[in-house]
Write a structure and sequence with these properties.
Two copies of one chain form a homodimer.
Chain A: E1 4-5, H1 15-21, H2 31-48, E2 54-57, H3 61-72, E3 78-83, H4 86-97, E4 101-106, H5 115-124, E5 130-134, E6 136-137, E7 142-143, H6 146-154, E8 159-163, E9 182-186, E10 198-202, H7 204-212, H8 223-230, H9 241-257, H10 259-279, E11 293-297, H11 304-315, E12 317-318, E13 320-321, E14 330-334, H12 341-357, H13 366-378
Amino acid sequence: MKQRLLTPGPTPVPEETLLELARPVHYHRTPEMRQLLSEVVEDLQYVFQTRNPVLVLTSSGTGGLEAAVANCLPPGSKAICLIAGRFGERWRSICKAFGIEPVAVTVPYGQSVQPEQLARALQQHPDAQAVCATLSETSTGAAHDIAAFGRLVAATPALLFVDAISGLVAMECRTDDWHIDVCVTGSQKALMLPPGLAFMSVSDKSWKQIDKNPTPRAYYFDLKKARASLQTGDTPYTSAHTLVRALKVSLKKIRSEGIEKLWTRQARVAAAARAGFQTLGLELFPSQPADGLTVVKVPPEIDGTALLGKLEKQYGLKLAGGQDQLKGKIIRLGHMGYIDQFDVLAGLAGVELVLHEMGYPLEPGRGVAAAQQVLAQSGAR
Amino acid sequence: MKQRLLTPGPTPVPEETLLELARPVHYHRTPEMRQLLSEVVEDLQYVFQTRNPVLVLTSSGTGGLEAAVANCLPPGSKAICLIAGRFGERWRSICKAFGIEPVAVTVPYGQSVQPEQLARALQQHPDAQAVCATLSETSTGAAHDIAAFGRLVAATPALLFVDAISGLVAMECRTDDWHIDVCVTGSQKALMLPPGLAFMSVSDKSWKQIDKNPTPRAYYFDLKKARASLQTGDTPYTSAHTLVRALKVSLKKIRSEGIEKLWTRQARVAAAARAGFQTLGLELFPSQPADGLTVVKVPPEIDGTALLGKLEKQYGLKLAGGQDQLKGKIIRLGHMGYIDQFDVLAGLAGVELVLHEMGYPLEPGRGVAAAQQVLAQSGAR
């Protein structure tokens, strides 16, 4: 049976990138590898829309989040954590682990933190040294208005840290224009690679904090060392360099399409997915949905875990469920990276067939047709 | 031109393992992936010769070294660092970064720290909470008598941390019998994978320290979280799971040969490499050489950087040079993992040809023949 990976990460990897991963391993400290890393970093700057250096870490995205906190914030300082799901919670946990006082601004899962809430928190905590936000909250499918957050934070001494792990490339994200001080992503989402690398841009405002931080608690994630190595096209420690080589292949695809065109295409696919699910009577879980994944509530009469199991076993469609308290209650369809509009149609078609089989009242084809309508109306791109 | 990667890491990756890396990406949180990780961990326990859990980190080996220090040692504590090269120095730097007082026991590069030196340091510093050692010092090719260190440390409350990054599998290393409390290796050496993963075994004695450490300074490298996840065959954060899948292929090769047989074969190849170089009149750099790499001094009249350049350009042979103050002064030939005796003959043959061409007095063939003599005398295995 043909398998389709439709989760919000790891995502499918293009065949050319996979083949690159099967090429023989070379030595990592050579002029060729330094040249390659420099090119990759330049491509990443384009993808991030930043003139700041983009550092390459051999870790999951969480390593990048930790690097931001451990390098920029001295223990005893305060950080405002905007929490709308599991990954907002992760910011809070990292702050706690490094002795930073987290000021939590929380909304129920499925909601998004509003700019007014951040404005109030900044007023109440003028001593906050950072604001930790999430572009796309992968656990709920909610997006945040990072541009608005950026305008607020830029007017204060605080730094804006953004977890853009499932957001970057999957939806509009303008690191410099939006005043993002540290923007973090991982390899296994819209960058179309297997997991193993994290990437982070670091602004001048952040470097000033890093350079004056008397007690950075980082060695492997020491950003000053990473910056110094990057100047010679290198990394402080042995990096997952075959992944870096493969990244070049995926980045070429992105650059040849153009990032703004890609954002528009992503938005269109996301709109189609939402229309499809809603036409089937499935309610969107997030009130302010992200473009890289669509999350819907499982109808109360349907067993969500059984639904996902049938999709996988009967049709080779791998979608993700909810985590922790959302287990069995939501399904998450990824549509970023190497997942296109027709893969989304396949996902919707599978959901229709399985729901129909499970006795849920629907007319097969209506969800797919609704998605098609959206695609047709927004024109080919 | 046929390329041969003969560096002490990254090392060549078997073709079957490379092909595994080109297989489609699957979701990472599935019963199949949990089963696979559990099998891989069991294989790693065999390879480490330990009954302790072996944790899988998505990082370079250095991440594993940091994890040992950051989790086991409270700030203000003391650690004896045995320093015979760049990687011994790394232990000291990590300790400093985490507020641990390093007590350095140093020997000149090329030498190995002797058990008597450690015995004295332990007597002088009975309050040391750890001893940081290196099985194979990759920067100099020196081996350490970890078995002897282990007997000494086991009689004290201190923990024995061993950087076995270029040593594990490449030479005898019996984690439990030798009382190693934390043994760390990386994927890109004798385990025959690209870089990107670190593996570490953690003893009961270490867990006791970890569990009572009031101030672990780790989030991404939090070993308690890693231990808890491992119990369900998982990792706390998204791991480089396609590398884990590929590791299974490489581990199968190791298990089918048998670790003791492999150690013997490694020792035999190392002896052949040493005999070959010495017959050419090249002096061994380490006084107590490791089995995974052979490091020799470049004759004073020869430009070491030019020698390595010619090997690469004219013959496709990639050997490593010295780092920092040893640049141009030594050459390092790796012979671990997927580098066998005949690859070593190729390396020796190339060195003979290039040295001859550079006007160094030698009779081409004598080094290769001497290596062959050693291989013949020690019999096929």
